[in-house]
Amino acid sequence: MRVSRILLALVAVAPLAACQSRMQTAALDDESAWYTGTMPDKPFDVPLVDTSRLDPKFRRQTVRYTGAEKPGTIVVDIDQRHLQLVEEDGSARQYGIGVGKAGFSWKGEARVGRKGVWPDWSPTTTMVSLNPDLPRTRKGGLDNPLGARALYLYQGNRDILFRIHGTNEPWSIGEQMSSGCVRMLNEDIVDLFERVPVGTQVLIKRSGKARV
Questions:
Q1: Beta pairing partners, 85
Q2: If residue 127 lies in a helix (H) or strand (E), which one and from where to where?
Q3: Residues that are catalytic
Q4: By C-alpha distance, which of 46, 32, 16 is closest to 144?
Q5: pLDDT higher than threshold 50 for residue 4
Q6: Architecture of the domain defined by 3-54+97-199
Q7: What residue spans define the domains of the chain?
């Protein structure tokens, strides 16, 4: 599928973003400039982003990890807009993320209760109360707000309705735009998805001091 066709599909879903967002005017100036091609995947190829358009601190990289969490833990820093996967050697794989608008972000401990490939999307009750015109479901695909993969966060056996997922709004990485979920570039969530099993511990931390 040509990238131009992918972009048309992505534009169509923008107002529906799970963990909803309002698109930034600057991002709309030339959406096609955000994309460089595709990565093979099933049942859809993953649109690849020109990461040179991101602030370097939000590009995927390996960093030193100084926290106390054990290897294999996902650590999300809402204030710094980073997600880190702690490695065995004192390092972490770090990814840039988009986070929730003021008043929507969650913090605490959870685990990956299940994983989804090109998952279906449904709005939460809160999202519907704020926007009754939202569709009640959307099948997985290029026009789906959850993107190519999703990690569903649970506490005990309860789905707490927060997700770590892909996005078709790459310009939202590093921004505070969603309704609470953690969003990543599609190629980054695919990378993380392959590295973490169901049961992975997740720590989401937020002090509020760095929020804008």
A1: 74, 93
A2: helix 125-130
A3: 165, 181
A4: 16
A5: no
A6: Beta Barrel (2.40)
A7: 3-54+97-199
The secondary structure element, H or E, covering residue 8 is helix 3-13
**Which helix (H) or strand (E) segment is 204 a member of?**
strand 201-205
Asked if residues 163 and 82 have their Cβ atoms less than 8 Å apart, the reply is no
Question: Which residues are paired to 201 by β-bridges?
Answer: 111
Q: Which of 26, 22, 49 minimizes the C-alpha distance to 38?
A: 49
pLDDT tens figures, 105-121? 688 999 999 999 999 97
Looking up tokens 């109360």 gives 129
Tokens, residue 201: 């511990």
How deeply is 42 buried, as exposed, middle or buried, from its count of CB atoms within 10 A (0-12, 13-18, 19+)?
exposed
Dig out the tokens for 86 from the structure: 């702690």
> β-pairing, 61-64 with 74-77?
unpaired
Contact 189, 165 (CB under 8 A): yes
* C-alpha dist (Å) from residue 120 to 123, 136, 157, 205, 209: 10, 11, 21, 27, 34
pLDDT tens readout for residues 36-93: 999 999 999 999 999 999 999 999 999 999 999 999 999 999 999 999 999 999 999 9
List the beta bridge partners of residue 39: 46
